[in-house]
Amino acid sequence: MQPHHEALIAQGWQAITDEGFIGLVGPFFQRQIDGDLHFIFPTDPRHHNLRGVLQGGALMTFADRSLGITARFHTKAARTATVQLDVQFVDATQIGETVAHTPRLVRATRSLVFLRTDLMVGDRVVGIAQGVWKILA
User: Fold this and answer.
1) Which domains does the chain have, with CATH numbers?
2) Within a 13 Å sphere around the CA of 125, how many CA atoms are in the beta-carbon half?
3) CA 10 to CA 47: how far, in whole Å?
4) Segments of the chain scoring below 50 in pLDDT
């Protein structure tokens, strides 16, 4: 874990990581404030694309993981699977910037969860994500 990640943990953020793919691109961070889940993604040089800005797939991975966590949070489901994820890239994210978002539950049925979010750097929208997650038995 990088030194600035330790500072985030000291501020109350929890690291989201695992032995799989997120272990390669993360960590991402989350915390709960007033009943809402908040997420941040501190970008670093390994996340760049050929143009030197944040790789779109890294932003999509962040959105997918954090929205999936939010689906489980709202439904108390042990497992969910992404059915659909739509991401619009609104503005470039510079390496070193931190992407933040607070997902919004649109609707949850017995089997599906609909979520959306604005991916932000400060007050600048860099992406918009929405998707559907299936609650697994």
Assistant:
1) 3-135 (3.10.129.10)
2) 10
3) 24
4) none
